[in-house]
Amino acid sequence: MPSIKARVRSRLPVIEGSIPHPYNRPEGCAFHPRCPDFMPGRCDQEEPAPRLVGTAQEAACLLYPEAAPAR
Description:
By secondary structure, this protein is low in regular secondary structure. The protein has one domain (15-71). Helices cover 0% and strands 8% of the residues. It contains no helices and 3 strands. The chain has strands at residues 51-52, 58-59, 68-69. Strands 2-1-3 form a 3-stranded antiparallel β-sheet, with no helix packed on it. 6% of the residues are buried.
């Protein structure tokens, strides 16, 4: 995530792959084709529900099954 205190010439991390097309999303999690933690048989079949992972943060990821469901 960009930071105000970042050096002017510092590079942001790159996420490999292409962003999924909004009208032609893959089955399961829309980000599984470019996720480094992809779990075959799960991420490509189950669509994750939003979960609270912080006081004001949500994640829709199968890596957070113990988090509270978002309202």
